[in-house]
Structures are given as structure tokens and as C-alpha cells.
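Translate sequence into C-alpha cells.
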Amino acid sequence: MAIEPTKEQQTARELFASGRDLALVAGAGTGKTSTLILMGGATRKRGLYVAFNRAIADDAASRFGPNVECRTAHSLAFRAVGHHYRERLNTSARIPAKHTAQMLGITRDLDVGSRRIKVSHQARLVMGMIRRFCYTTDRQVMARHMEGVNGLDDQAQEFVARTLLPYAHRAWQDICSTAGKLRFEHDHYMKLWAMTEPVLPADFVLLDEAQDTNPVLEEVFLAQEAQRICVGDPAQQIYGWRSARDVMTGFPADHLHLTQSFRFGPAIATVANRWLKHAESEMQLTGHGPNTSRIDTLAHPDAVLCRGNADAMQEVFALLELGIPVALTGGGSALHRIATAAMELKAGKRTSHPELFLFSSWGEVQEYAEQDKAGQDLKAIVQLVDTYGPDQIIAAVDRLSPEQEAKVTVSTAHKAKGREWPSVRIGKGFVAPSVDDDGLQRALNSSEARLIYVAVTRARHQLDTEGIAWIDAYETTMASAGRDGTVAGRPMIELSLTGQLRYETSPVSHFMAQRLPYSQNLIRDYLGRIAHLPHPVQPIDVQHPNWSALGHAIDYRLRLSLGGRLGPAVALGVWALDGAESLRGVPGPESRKALHTAGRQLLAMVDAYLAAPGHIDDDALTRLCFVAGFFEDIARTGQIRRFSMLSGATPGTSLDDLTTAVPAYVLDDIGQQIQLADGPFTSFRRLPPQARVCGPVFSGSGDIGGADADYILGGLLLDCKATKAPRHLGREEIYQLAGYLLLDYDDQYGISHVGLYLSRQGGLVTWEVGEFLRRLGGDVPLRRLREQFRQHLRSVGGRQ
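Result follows.
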């Protein structure tokens, strides 16, 4: 018997039938698949439903009408490209790492300080680079595609990545050939297919699980001219750690919600809604499932959901001690392998385990996990091994039952996604956020809240929230924090414009939410405009580029090309080194003096360049700009931070030392961005000098902790963004533009347009001021809005 659609489902069907793009935000248990089938039956057009895996696609195929083809992304890629590599797929499944190394030409072990990476492990790292590259939208393999190697510091990681990069390029060339010899995987033809920029054979495309989409599939989906419908729940995005992307948030289309959950009743819905708020979701669920659903203490739950593998194993041990048959979702093979590796290391042998192969003893692993920040991911596993011993872990894994025979299933929250049980207990590992150095409660990370939301919505009838009971005390603490309008004892009104936009309770954010509430409207328009921008230029042969410093450097280079100075913050940072006030992180008085001298020389050289632009070449200018960013950081933070290139200064440090230390990748990267800017900035450079304002400060900047924009060029307020992922720009960037516009209380700059310049794509996106404010929901003229902003800020600051 057909089930009567809800009003929400009917609305979705009608909007779909109109032919418009749609983002369908479907909460846990809200009938997502039945809604999609309802849509597919509303038209005779050809449809394509793209599912996460084959089982889902096969199930959907039995429920959709004949006009909708149900496929996985890999099956689409295989039909178009992968079938050419069928023989390689069949014959290359098992190639030992040693043979892979021979084919790549890796002939000797690699010495990295006191460590040695054998040829077989080098080969594994190279093929791992290819695998990670295939998960991205990048067009070539880069050093940063190498996974982290436990036991190496950052400098050593960079060395290994650069050393192996030529082999990775050689590997990709082999993989692209149907006659290649290396192991060929399904993700390889998926990447090759995406790089052909395919047009999908359909009038409309339904993308399921769009909140956790492979970036490769995301790129294909967004490029389609067909009607696009993405469906999922952004609050269930929990695979960002393995590069999955949320296509839905900001998708330039109508957004509808399915909020009636048929999985559970009101009691569990209330818990889910609590975590939805912490996950920064606007959605609130209503429970239309079993009336028996309740929150209760469970002695015998059907499932126990934990934060990580080590947490899950602790639950397994406890249940086994009670004689309860227990299953572990996904099995215990990963834990078995780590325990075996621990036994080998404890016996003084080397191990081939991919996370531990560099260590010569278990003591080295313990020390690394305890003392090195990079080893924190290993800490829980080390504690598990040290608590129970590898023998006991292996014995426990061997005693696990199949799920159909177990009384209790233990799972991580990640592996529980897409599943449900009659009764669920939230187990170990979900911990409350810590306090900072000032004793203030840190905010709950939204990604952690999303994971807990997934966990609590797996229950149909009974939910035991034992593992997250700390939320009551946390919410009480956070409710009292910020009520006095301060952050770490500092009034929020004294924060800069960008600083205030990080806090929804700040005076600036409060005004934007009240007067210009529809940032999503503008974000969708922006995303539509950047849809066909080229791929970003970016460093190739460095694993960890200093993105922040590169962003400052390109901003300075563009300012100088317009005849503008670096900006007051650089000079303030230089002069702060000559002041009496203390600066954290300064190497010492004599080193501080040396840095001050170097900074003054830098400012003088830039002034000389502006007076006679031809006497400093492009590379030398880029070096100066890169160094200048670290002086600005002193002004912004009041310290020399640990990662700053100034932190290692000595009494003998000179400007030449600093500019010589600028990495080669910086010159190449900034050079590419300058070339891209030649087009958009040519007309700006032709403007009269008075129409080219770099680093403008506004009459209202003093009403907050400061606000200086990048440029105002002939009435265009322009902010430069050096991001390689422009789709991720959002609320803060839009309100940053709005804040600058409103702080020009007296229309000193005659701003008529606002916009963003994307320096890595050469993309210029602008809006006329009236259109910009209308899209944001402004309902009064700009002059009046500025006056309201001034009154609001001054009343908060006690200046009225």
C-alpha cells in the first residue's frame, strides 16, 4: 500500500517538477529515498541516481521507475573509461611493494637523519601519493599528497615528499597507460574519467549522500548542465578527515528540508535536536517513529557506539569479561595488525605496519606518541596496547562473534552511519571540550557535534546517553560565558572586524544577523559565478606550503603593482621590535634589535622600489613581500609565533639572511599568481593615483578594534583571497565586505561596487552595492544602514 507523502515531500516533488536545481536536506530517518522516488515518478525525463555504493544503487533500482538509471560513480566511470583498463584491473591486483619499487626505479634505501626508509616502504608511500591524488580535484600529483610518516618531523617529511615526488609522477604516467605495469585500482579510472570533464547521460541527476561526496565526483556533478538535485544531511558530514566534501551547503539552488523522522519518536528527536544546534544546523527534527522511544539507562543495549577504535576495543573487553557475545563492526583486523606490530617491536624486531615501520622498538613508539604533537593520533592505540597487552588484544579479536550471533554490536560512530538498532548506548571516547590556558571553556567543535548527532540518531526505541552526559555542564558553562560581552576578559567590541565575525554573539555579527540576515542568498550567487573558474595555481613540490604567508605576499605584490604601500601593520610590527613592551617568542634583546634593523631596511627598500619600480627584480620583490608578512604578524598577535621565520633570529641576523631563506616554491607560486592578475588588474593600474587606494581604513574603524580592507579601486571595494578552494568562502567573507562598506560612515571612498578577487584562479566577482545589500536582505538605503551600524557600535562601546 502506497504511503501518503508528507507536505515536505510534496513540496520537494513540486519544486523538482519545475525543473529547478534543488538541495534536499534530509534529517536522519526522514524518508529521503522515498522522496527521491516520488521525484523520479513526477516526470518522464531521463534521470540518473548516483549512489554511494552498489548495494544502495541496486536497492534503488528496484524502487525507481524505468526512466531513472541507478548507478554508482565508479560504474559510470568504468563504462566511460575504466573498461579500457579491464585487463590491468584483473592482472595487477597483487604486486609486492618490492616489485613496485623496481618498476619505479627506486633502488636504494632512503636515509632521513637517523631513520632509514626501505625501498619497499618508499614504493608504498609513492603509491599512497597516487591514491590521495585520485581523491582530489588537483590536476597533477604534488608533494603534499604524501601521507604523514610517523617518526619524522616536518622538515624530514618535506625532504621525503620532495624526494619521492618524481617517482610519483612516473607512477601516474604508468597508470594513465593501458600498457602500464603498476597496480591499477578502481579509483585510478575514476580520476581519469573525471579529468575528461564528462557530461552525464541524463536530463536530471540525483546525487545521494551529498554531504560526504568524493571531491572528484563533486567536481563532475557541479559541472553538469542537467537539472541537479543533491540530497543528504550536512549535519551528518563526518568523513571530512578523508577529504569527503559537503556539496549541499552553499549549493546555488533552492534548499528544502525533510524534518519528520520516522525512525524514532519525540524523546530521541529532542536529543538529536540538541546536537543539531551544536553542529550549526538550522534543521530541527520531529519524531514520528515509535512512541516507545525513550531516553533510559540500558544494561543490555543492542549496540554500543564509541568515538574511536581504541574506545570500541575497551567496550569489547568489558563485554567479553561479562561473558556476553560481542561483535565489532568492520571486524578486528586493524587492531589485530597493530597488536602484531607491537609484539614485533617489543621483541626488538622491525615491523612492516604502515604506521609503525620507521620505529625500531615499542619504546620509541611510546615516546613519539607522548612527546611529539604529530603522534597524537597514535596515543589512544598506544594506551590500549599498554593497558591490555598485544596478546590480550589478539585473543579478544579472535573471540569476536559475527553480528548475527552477537548479543551486542560495538561500533565506532563513523562505521555506524547508515545503520540503526532498537536500542543504543553512547559509549566511550566522546569527551567534553577542554579549557584554554586562561581557564576558559573552549567551544565544542561542530565536526564533533555532527559525529555525536549521527550516533544518537541510530536508535529507534531506546537511547542511553551515558557517554555524552557532560553536555549538561558544558551548556551551562557556555550559556554564562559571553553574556558580559567579552572574550578572554576582553570586550568583544574591541576585536577587529574579522575577529568579531568569528563570534556570532559579537556586536558586528549581531547587527549583520538582524539587518542583513540572508548571507546564504549571496553565497549561492557567488558559487554560481565561480562555477567555471580554472583550477587554482598552487605549489607542487612542497608538502606543507605556508598558505597564510603566501596570502600576505600576493596581497603585498598586488598593492605594490598599484603604487600602494605594504600597509601600516607591517611598519607597526617593525617598530614593535624597538619598543619597551614585551613580546612573546622574541629570541633575545640582541636578536630583537637585529630584527628591528632588518625590518627598517625592508621598509626602506620597498619605499625605494615605489619611487623607482625598475630597480628591484620580481623575485627580489617577492622575497621582501614574503618576509614582510611575518613582521605584520607581530603587529596582529603581539608575539613572534613558533612557526614564524623570524623565530630563529640571532644577533647576527640580517635582511639578506631573511630574504635568502625564502623557499623557492614561494617565488614560483607568487609568480604564477602575478601572471594571472595581469588581466583583471590591468584596468585598475590605469586608474588615476587618487582612485587607487590600498589598505583603506574607514571612519568607523575606530569604533571597533580595527578594520582595513585590501583595495578600493575606482569605487570598487575589493578583497583579495588567495584560497585554492574558493567554494569554501562563506558567511565571514561576505560579512567582511559588508562590514567595510558600512564602516565608511560618511561615504569617504564613494564605494559603488564590492567584490572578491580570487588570486589563484584569476577570478573577479563583483556586485553593485544596491544588489549586494538587497541579496543580503537589507531593507533600508545604504546611508540609513550606515547610521544604524554606527549607532549600534557606539551604544555597545558606551560612546553614545
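Note: The mean pLDDT is 91.
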